[in-house]
Amino acid sequence: MIDYRTPTLADGTEIDAMARKVWLETFEPFTSPQNIAAYFAEAYGPNGKLIRDLSNPDVSWRVACAGDEIVGYAKLTPPFLPDPAMTAGALQLSQLYIAGTHHGAGIAQALMAWTIDTARARGAKALLLTVYEANPRAIRFYEKHGFAHIGDYAFPVGDQVDRDLIMRLAL
């Protein structure tokens, strides 16, 4: 059985470890060890963005737990995309990570439903996200939920720049 809840600061280390593992499973084949190290130094660890965002009141979180283990999370943020015309009235799903051991269990769908409901409750007119162009499974998932590709985003990973698709869902 999967339980869903809002995480606390005490969950930071576990969420961080799960996110690192999912990131490596998904993106390591496309990224050099040096660029992974550079990205991880910024994104993860005790001073990384992920743990800092747990105490940011502008960021909403939901975690999925199998027993005492965190196996997924969604992170809803103000938009970080640079185009004000694109981001006006929107919120952004900045991460939706599910442990590989729990793919196919309905966790992603439940976290997406929470994300959409939360964005609507906060008065958002649209939900944005970015997804790596070489992640067809995620792209299909977002398309099934009504997201459409509206542009591209240059996502830096160390000195490598990946092409992410910007996707939008009207709420």
Q: What do these coordinates show?
A:
This protein is an alpha+beta fold. Helix content is 35%, strand content 33%. The chain contains six helices and seven strands, in the order βαααββαβαβαββ. The chain has a seven-stranded mixed β-sheet, with helices on both faces. Strand 4, helix 5 (107-121) and strand 5 (126-132) form a beta-alpha-beta unit. The chain is globular, with a radius of gyration of 15 Å.
- Low-pLDDT segments, ≥5 res: none
User: How many β-strand stretches?
Assistant: 7
Largest sheet: 7 strands, mixed
H/E element sequence: EHHHEEHEHEHEE
| Rg, alpha carbons | 15 Å
Query: How are the strands ordered across the major sheet?
Result: 1-2-3-4-5-7-6
Overall geometry comes to: globular
Structural class: alpha+beta
Mean pLDDT: 96
Percent of residues in helices comes to: 25-40%
Number of helices: 6
- Report, as a whole number of angstroms, the end-to-end distance: 30 Å
Strand content: 25-35%
Using brief descriptors, characterize the structure shown.
171 residues; seven-stranded mixed beta sheet; 33% strand; 35% helix
Q: Topology of this structure?
A:
Layout: E1 2-5, H1 12-27, H2 33-43, H3 49-53, E2 60-66, E3 69-77, H4 84-87, E4 90-98, H5 107-121, E5 126-132, H6 136-144, E6 148-157, E7 160-170
Parallel strand pairs: 4-5
Antiparallel strand pairs: 1-2, 2-3, 3-4, 5-7, 6-7
Q: In a nutshell, what does this entry contain?
A:
The chain has helices at 12-27, 33-43, 49-53, 84-87, 107-121, 136-144, and strands at residues 2-5, 60-66, 69-77, 90-98, 126-132, 148-157, 160-170.
